[in-house]
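As described in the Methods, two query proteins were run sequentially through the folding procedure within a single session, without resetting any intermediate state between them. The first query and its resulting structure tokens are shown here.
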Amino acid sequence: MSKAIELNQDNEVLRWHLSYLLSEQDWLSIINLISQSPPLLTAGNEYQYWLARAYEQTGNDSLAQQLYSQLAEHRHYYGFLASARLGRAINLENQPIVVSADTIANLLRRPEIMRAYELFQLERYYEARREWRHLQGKLRESEQLAMVELATAWGWHDRSIFALSDMGMLNDVDKRFPLAYVELLSSEAHKYNVEPEWALAIARRESSFMPDAVSPANARGLMQVLPSTARYLEKRRMSSRQLLNPKLNAKLGNKYLRYLLDKLDNNVVLATASYNAGWRRVKQWVPQSGTVPADIWVETIPYKETRNYVKAVMAYKQIYQTKLADKSASSNPSVFAEFSQLQIGEQT
């Protein structure tokens, strides 16, 4: 074990080692690994959560509760997992940005901002973003925040999302996770018996609600639908341009989510991974005998991109479930309360 610890001076090696021990559910070795590895590598949320899980599994409830409580104070995947294990409501840490009316009024006098607005209204998104970025680079932080306020008011949500991320201002939850296209996405989700909060989370992760988004793989629109996927679902050829239509894209994205659920026994975690990596590949990652807890399964996904994708979508889904519940005064079991009880394996 000491030789293995010596190797864990590199974050990727340490993460691989943790993944292996999780696959074995060797909780004592997980405690030793995290406790004896460099604190600079293990101070992050991922390792603190798994240290708490290991303490819980080995009967040290006091230390587990302490670590869970620290994680549960924050808005992230592991914080939501910790909240579920404590039976607590999640903490969104929502802190809206504050911008003066004078700053917004002065910004509206800039010809560049009005050109960007007019181009946006004409759905000439590429040119609108070019005007926007050109002006943004010349402004002070307070003026950039005023641009965020304007973009949100105009329904130009991708500009708000990217700007706040670039500025490191991550706690204005309403602007970073807007209910963009909510009527459209919810309507299409209901048609295919898909949870609206999941459809919103997928669209937020895939395109940040940019209707003209195009990936290097030619996935298109709000939910990043591939032309080949659209052709398969609709049994007819569709042009790449058609997929940039938000209504059609929302329909096809939700129809594809339904298709994946049908392939995977309605398991949202597996279907989420499949939206990124393909359901045939994901089926290969499911244990052929026995089951494992869903949090362990996610942590041991062999593709880093898919692993991070599932964590992001599940966290976004929780945020959107909370926002939709606040809007409708409904109360469903939290996403992570269900997730923390889910088993992945031969029964899925």
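Immediately afterward, the second query was submitted; its sequence and tokens are:
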Amino acid sequence: VLAGLGFIEITTLTLTNPADHFTKLGIADDGQSVVIENPVTVEGTILRRHLQEGILKTYIRNSTQHLPQKIFEIGDVFQLHPGSETGATAARHIAIGIADANAGFADIKAVVDAFAHELDLNINLTPADYPYFITGRSALISTTDSTPVGIIGELHPQVLERLELPFPVVLAELNIQQLAPNPS
């Protein structure tokens, strides 16, 4: 669906670090990250909790390329879960990003709406504020039974500045395992 909408798929690393994953975005670390006991590098000390960092790092590496840049990633994110066999769980997510001089909330909302329509998914958007999105330009994505499945928003200018991104970016991330029931 996203390739048909002109998006390019990327694949990023599952290892990251708290500074890149939380601090630069202004997200509080809730202590639920899977920490690597003996990391090989300081860049890979935890398993990722979201896919948005990979989208943003791709934009940073390609900041001199032509706009618009429309990319997505499907991958696993990880979180501590004491009751599981390994002490952690993985969930399959999809992240979608648009970088463009005039990118706004309506642009990413249109993509999420098209994605949901093509996959016959019923979703709702409820206004919600996140520290790395502009106030009033972000929302919680949920199913019709009010199960939270993702977020959507327009990156705050302070975050763009910290990341040295010279253009607006809009993002969405959804837990695709929660969107579709498990096949029987």
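Helices lie at 18-21, 52-61, 105-118, 157-162, 176-179. We note this only descriptively and draw no conclusion about the first query from it.
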